[in-house]
Amino acid sequence: MTSSRLPLLRVWPLLCLAALLVFLAGSNISAIGGGSLWGPIWSGTTSGTASSIRMSYVYSPQLVMALLSGSGLGFAGCVFQLSLLNPLASPSTLGVSSGAQLALTLTLLLAPELHASHAFAIALTGSFLAWGLVAAIGGRRLEDPLTLLLSGMAVSFTLAAVTTCLFILKDHYLNSMFIWGAGDLAQNGWDGVRFLAPKLVFGAAIVLAMSRPLSLLGLGTGVARSAGVPVGWARAIVLSAAILITAAITAAVGIIAFVGLAAPHIARMAGARRVIPQLLTAALTGALLLGVTDQALQFLLKSLASFLPAGALAGMLGAPLILYLMRKMAKPPVQPEHSLWLRPHIIRSRADQWRLVAICCMVLLVCLAIALGLPSLDLPLILDWRAPRVLTALLAGCALGCAGCLGQRLLGNPMASPESMGISAGAIMGTVLVLLILPAAGTVGQTAGALGGALIVLMSVLFYGRHQDFDPRSLILVGIAITAIADAAILIFFATGDPRVSQVLALMSGSTYRASYELLSIPAGLSLVAVLMILPALRWLDILPIGNGTARALGMPLALARTVIIISMALLTVAATLLAGPITFVGLAAPQIARVIGLRSTGSHLAGSAALGGSVIVFSDFAGRRLFLPYELPAGLMSVLIGAFGLVLTLTVLRFYGKRRRGRDTAVRGVAA
Amino acid sequence: MRHLLCAALCCLCLGQAIAGDAAARTPPRVVPLDWGLASTLFALGVKVPALAEKSGYADWVGPENLSDDVVDLGLRLAPDMERLRNADPDLILITPQFSSIVPRIETIAKTKVYATFTPEKTPLSNSIRIARELGELLNASDRAEQLVASTNEALADLRRSRETKPEACPVLVVNFVDERHVRVFADGSLYDDVLKAGNIENAWRRPTNYWGFGTAPASALLDYPDAALIVIGPTPPQVQRILDASGGTQTFDTLLHHLPAVEAGRLRIIPAIWSFGGLPEAARLAKALTSANLPECPHD
């Protein structure tokens, strides 16, 4: 399609993929029983032998389904990226997949019949509702790519947290959702293809008819507007078409990560610049990527006879590619990093800052009292059962708040958080691995697994960062890649139908359930070491956010400073993970809040972050225990939900502020997400 | 702080002492954290004061009508510790899957571990042993022997019905996860042990997990053209529709209709039986299999 106009050099990856696909498909077909079997498929009859049934009801529909879904995902991904001017836009980063997943999970629980008969309508409704939520949160700022991405991620995390709650509470009723979430392409006949194909054609036709407005949108909102394109409407129509396509695919086969993100990038690297060639090349690339993944899986697993869903595997294989793409993107930063900081509205004196810290500590005390169940004085109950959990939550929250604060100051990036270094993901991968190898492993085994995983990740991050003078960005990139791999591994684990799904999910989402006084000592020790390490480095932390140049000019040993900070951050994260599993979000949010309320000096910022982090986790733990008593939800999930509530509140307040002082600060609202 | 800790320690000791006294209570209050153990206890006629995921238990395991005074403990693998403590058990029964919380549970009451599923992969004989041990422990040895005897009876019936059919098919025991995926039960599962006791061959040859099942695409069933297909519930509605229709006029055209077992009428559907259960579940499966009248595969 495009190869005739492009130098061969650029399209060689596509040609290689195509050749690989033909080779793999050929050998798979001959393994089933030879090419002679194609005859019966075309004529529509089956001779009834096992191999002909396999050919016409299993193999061929699956191959067609892989190519169709792949092309649809590539196409839709390209539409997302073009119309939103955002190279990272995809159904998963915009919350659309999470919306579909939540809607399908809820219907499966409440009305299984409806779920069976109307999966597409449900997925579509969920997707559009999620998108509506993103639009509502983003408000008028939706045109700003950063705001869009952040609102998308926030909605995505929140909906995913609700889904996880349902998974934990009702795991037995949701077995099929685990396989669906891992995106397996297996087919039982042509029903799936008959279902999907018309929707893809319809969606694609709408987009292709809108190709001129789309290409203008791709040049920027301003250009499009001056060319007379009704930007809002044009964008809404093409996005709706893309959402329709992805919802149809998720309803048909489940969630398939990565293809929609990678295909458009590969298409652009192959030289497709104008809109229609780019869309079509992305579709072709997507089809090739998913087709090759699916065929390679069948080719390799024939002898092993085990079950691996292609969607999750694609996510795992795609991690290095995402790493590569993000590296390329990271070079020209969208805007100078400092402007991403939420600016406090009030500048406070040092004494005022410490007074604020004292108020934070009082909030923490109130949370502690509520969580312990005071003023009830059932002392044995409180001391034996509540205190260990509350202490664990407290220590974990404080450690994460500190780690987040260190990370954000180190990287000069408010989006940095402990989990973005991949340490939490490493810890959880270690735990799951131990559970897989030793199904009856106790606390010691699981703790060792967590520690091992975290250390391996830390080592690889340090090893990788060593060459770049511990350049913050490369650290985060490794973290993202490792997290992607861990996510995929866990999806595959769930798809195997292991009966401990609910337990592992709770572990993974950060729970204080197993807390006891004995388990407190090691993490407390680690945190203490970290705090002692960081105390002499407080001055460095004051300087680092200003920028490398300043730091160097002041004679700071940059590499040493960064190593010290990274190690103590890692120690704090490991301590928190050992205590309560990987808790996301609080490491990101607590330091942000501390900063917004005006804690700027390193000392008060650290103390405030710790107190706020502790409050959030202690309260989340309490809420998780109480909400569906006696059914317990993990603190980590509750903190995400509470955080989402806080986010909506913050945005509302900021919008109100914005009305009064319009134009004061555009970046603020985006980052608040 | 020291005083507080001292007080805590005293309370702990006091609690232990009370628990020690209570062990003499008759009948002792026994709380099973695992559904399979709970089902065995019910079969032994033991009254259970608390149970995890009570509503789920009714759906998945038990015909037993749980009375309202049975306390719901919350999630099976993460029971609410405070409720467990307040249920005032004398004895807590767990499986090795709870080992990470054993130190905590032990402070509430005496805790005993019973493993139906072990690396030796002999769940049926483990279940028999567990039923006898529980009977002995709870002064219900008679009931335990009755349970073992009635289970053996059911297994013997199954074996006899098998002997009347010299050419009985090997079977595949599956549970449909969705219309495209099945869990296949084989070596190491309770279902498979029942088949073994009934002298029925399990056709599935692929590796299984710790609990004796594997997840596979439905197309994997094509690899066993000579096997009978035993579908154990719960079956998702869309699969149920297809399987129901397969006897009559064919309005669907999917792989499931062309499975050799379905085409040859070698399909048997059995209502839900908890696959991680114990002796009562084994007996139920044996009875269901006997009355399902397993098909024959004449070799020509």
Automatic annotation (TrEMBL), chain A:
Keywords noted in UniProt: Cell membrane, Membrane, Transmembrane, Transmembrane helix, Transport
Membrane topology summary: Multi-pass membrane protein
Localization of this protein: Cell membrane
Transmembrane regions listed in the UniProt entry: 59-82, 94-112, 118-139, 146-169, 236-263, 275-292, 304-326, 356-377, 389-411, 423-441, 447-464, 476-495, 515-538, 559-580, 635-654
Pfam family membership, one: FecCD
Family in the record: Belongs to the binding-protein-dependent transport system permease family. FecCD subfamily.
PANTHER family per UniProt: FE(3+) DICITRATE TRANSPORT SYSTEM PERMEASE PROTEIN FECD-RELATED, FERRIC ENTEROBACTIN TRANSPORT SYSTEM PERMEASE PROTEIN
Protein name: Fe(3+)-hydroxamate ABC transporter permease FhuB
Organism of provenance: Roseibium litorale
UniProtKB/TrEMBL annotation, chain B:
InterPro entries named in the record: ABC_transptr_periplasmic_BD (IPR002491), Bact_iron-sidero_bind (IPR051313)
Family to which the UniProt record says this protein belongs: Belongs to the bacterial solute-binding protein 8 family.
Keywords associated with the record: Ion transport, Iron, Iron transport, Signal, Transport
Main location: other
Name used for this protein in its record: ABC transporter substrate-binding protein
Location in the cell: Cell envelope
Cleavable signal peptide: 1-19
Record domain Fe/B12 periplasmic-binding: where: 29-297
